[in-house]
Amino acid sequence: EGPESFPPLRNEAAVRVLQGRMKGIQGHCNSCYMDAALFSLFSCTSVLDSMLFMPFPLCDRNVQGILRDEIVNPLRRSGFVRASSVMHLREQLTDKGQCSSFTNAEKDPEEFLNLIMQQILGIEPLLKLQSGGQEQECYCYQIFMDKQEDLVVPDVQQLVERSFLSSDLKLVEIPSCFIIQMPRFGKEYKMFSKIIPSLELDITDLLLDSPRECCLCGDVATLECS
């Protein structure tokens, strides 16, 4: 008999299970970067469920088991994960990684994702990006951009498009999973007080060599103006 699995929460079930007090992933000792990342990756989508079940070549079964049985399954089953379960995962990451402070310090979500996806589970990179003719592979994309006065309450679509434009980036291919980290903020400075989630993302203009229509005549475009 294989490991138990619970499907991601959808629609009314998501509201019923995840809404209210004592719901979500309990925070403790600077865990918010990991709590938010895990909730986003697993609560309502199955796109990364291979992380929980696939026997990848380099996969650490212990970490995979903790992630599946102590965090993702309880989250989907009852909508709540104890801080002690996340600490169990953080202790394992500290043992496996080169960094000794996963149990007490605040980290960048990208550092956590790179460690768990690349070094511990051995997953191939999810994104292929091109900038200035150079290709790079990564597991997630962090939005970098200067403060823009015309964006007061932006949506994710606007932020991704402007960030790609300012960094001269294109997607080499349609990604199987597109993990996007919003612009960071701390206690002193917030770039945006709110960001509206885009429930769908149109990546047509972000794809390298993708056929697009001319905005003047409607035929297939031969030139692109940034």
TrEMBL record:
Keyword hit for Cytoplasm: yes
Keyword tags: Cytoplasm, Hydrolase
GO molecular function, one term: cysteine-type deubiquitinase activity
Protein name: CYLD hydrolase
Species per Swiss-Prot/TrEMBL record: Cardinalis cardinalis
